[in-house]
Amino acid sequence: MKKYRVAILGSGNIGTDLLVKALRSEHLTCVAFIGRSYTSPGMAKARALGVTCSDKSIAYIQEHASEMDLVFDATSAKDHAVHAPILKALGLQVIDLTPAKIGPMCIPAVNLDASLGNDNLNMVTCGGQASIPVAFAIGRTHPEVDYLEVVSSIASKSAGPATRINLDEYIETTEKGLQAFSGAKHTKAILILNPAVPCIDMQTTIFASVKNPDLPALKAVLDPIIQKISTYVPGYRILVGPILENGRIVVMVKVRGRGDYLPEYAGNLDIINCAAIAMAEEFAKEGGR
């Protein structure tokens, strides 16, 4: 079987973890690991793994586009706004791991099939990947979702420079994703960077104010979605709920990372990478667009 040729743009923690995951995949092969600093830890890791590296950023892709089928953009929302039209002109499939909101939002457990027809997919945010499947199930079983709030707590050490730069975009993109997938009238996303030692695992709590809460109906829709998520994010599980608290539906999820390149507590980064790899593998199985 011919493997799908992927390039990773962004040599930080997210990009490097993506690299390890891509190399493990039966359907993908990484043909280039691209950044701006040839001496970065990520580049050193990629070279040790025998992967072609470049510090020429998007220029390398422009020169070698014919050698690639898909590009993961693991840079920043601002950078992806520059990269997106270039990658589109080159005819490359793109999976965007920044909160740039340029392409349609993709949550594999919810809209995998619908996402396959798009050339630029946005993986929303780590909080979005953790919470939107629950929000979607709430919206499917409750036609009137008045207010939906998501609080994600992550280890401070798992929030690198790119994550911190993108905080405003993170909040805005997560809220828009929640609204789009749940139909909620109002949404709010909160991110807590917890400095506790030892580092905490990612925990995300979803609060929903709905008319006529129906927990059995919600659970019937939610359980199969959780099973789908567990096929590509083994460390994803429900800690609490769904329950009713002060008239609100409450669900709490925990995400433990696989520990490929990032620490296991960095489930917030692992979940979005696992989702991106899952989508890339589906493109590979479909033979591209």
Describe this structure in words.
By secondary structure, the protein is an alpha/beta fold. The chain folds into two domains: 4-123 and 271-286, 3-Layer(aba) Sandwich (Rossmann fold); 126-265, Dihydrodipicolinate Reductase, domain 2 (2-Layer Sandwich). The protein contains ten helices and eleven strands. The strands form two sheets. Strands 3-2-1-4-5-6 form a six-stranded parallel β-sheet, with helices on both faces. The protein has a five-stranded mixed β-sheet with strand order 8-7-9-11-10. Helix 5 (108-115) links the parallel strand 5 (93-96) and strand 6. The radius of gyration is 18 Å and the shape is globular. The relative contact order is 0.16. The mean pLDDT is 92.
Summary keywords:
alpha/beta; Rossmann fold; 289 residues; Dihydrodipicolinate Reductase, domain 2; 10 helices; six-stranded parallel beta sheet
Largest sheet: 6 strands, parallel
| Tally of DSSP β-strands | 11
The CATH first-level class of the largest domain comes to Alpha Beta
Identify the CATH architecture of the largest domain.
Answer: 2-Layer Sandwich
How much of the sequence lies in strands comes to 25-35%
CATH topology of the largest domain: Dihydrodipicolinate Reductase, domain 2
N-to-C series of helices and strands: EHEHEHEHEHEHEHHEEHEEH
pLDDT under 50 segments (min length 5)?
none
Number of domains as seen in the coordinates: 2
Number of DSSP helical runs: 10
- The SS-based structural class is alpha/beta
Sum up the overall morphology in one term: globular
- Report the helical percentage: 40-55%
CATH superfamily descriptor of the largest domain = Dihydrodipicolinate Reductase, domain 2
Mean pLDDT: 92
Spatial strand sequence of the major β-sheet: 3-2-1-4-5-6
Gap between N and C termini: 18 Å
Measured on Cα atoms, how large is the radius of gyration? 18 Å
